Amino acid sequence: MVGQNVGNSTMTKADIVEKVYEKIGFSKKEASELVELVFQTLKDRLHQGEKVKISGFGNFVVRKKKERVGRNPQTGEQIKITARRVLTFRPSQVLKAMLNGEEYAHLVDHDDEDSED
Q1: Above 70 in pLDDT, residue 112?
Q2: What domains can you pick out in the chain, each with its CATH number?
Q3: Which pLDDT does position 117 carry in this prediction?
């Protein structure tokens, strides 16, 4: 079904730290600091309005939405929706292929070339 977590589990930041710890051999403190640094860098760049492109994974883009009029679905009353910035994620062709069990080796060198915004 649309919107359901297919694996029925959630990966957390602690899980990522554990993987770095196991795979790289850093201490848990070093692994935690590294993961925190990566996420903080991503957040800082997005906060500045920059696009974040991770080859083989996807693109994070901050978009501006204008103020608009909406409706309360229960009452039908008009309400003002304020202007805001929203974060969008577009998966790479490689990630899409992986998720669908398709061959993706041929996409690795040309990842995201056709999905520029």
Answers
A1: no
A2: 11-48 (4.10.520.10)
A3: 44
